[in-house]
Amino acid sequence: MHAIVGMDHIGLRVTELARTRRFYEKLGFVFLDGPLGPEPVAIMEHPAGVNLNLILNGDESLRANPLMDYPEKPAGYTHVALRVSDAREVQEDLRAQGIAVSEGPVELGGGLSLFVRDPDRNVVELHQPGTGS
């Protein structure tokens, strides 16, 4: 197998493009294109190089995140973690943007993490690594 050289994109199922786009723009993502293709998909990218593929076929009637919000815990991806330089500064930025922190700040692995939910309750961790990371 050839070596993996990086992450290409994160696929995220959502219910409504406009609402999701506004949320991720508050985090600094830029809308690039879409909807495209048969699914359909919209593409956003952060200047840090993180690419989101927003898959626009989420079921609006499901108001909870099945991987996070039920007592049964099915296997699957539970969140995406985005590296930040200063979690305390990010916390103030989130407050100014009207984005609620659902958990944190919490110390994890010598670093500091904040957790937020997007409009479809997908979990986003904003993680400041510790000095040894």
UniProtKB/TrEMBL annotation:
| CDD domains named in the record | VOC
Where is each VOC domain found?
A: 6-129
Q: What keywords tag this UniProt record?
A: Metal-binding
Query: Which sequence ranges form a coiled-coil region, renumbered to this chain?
Result: none
Look up the domain of life of the source: Bacteria
What protein name is recorded for this chain? Answer: VOC family protein
State the organism of origin: Thiohalorhabdus methylotrophus
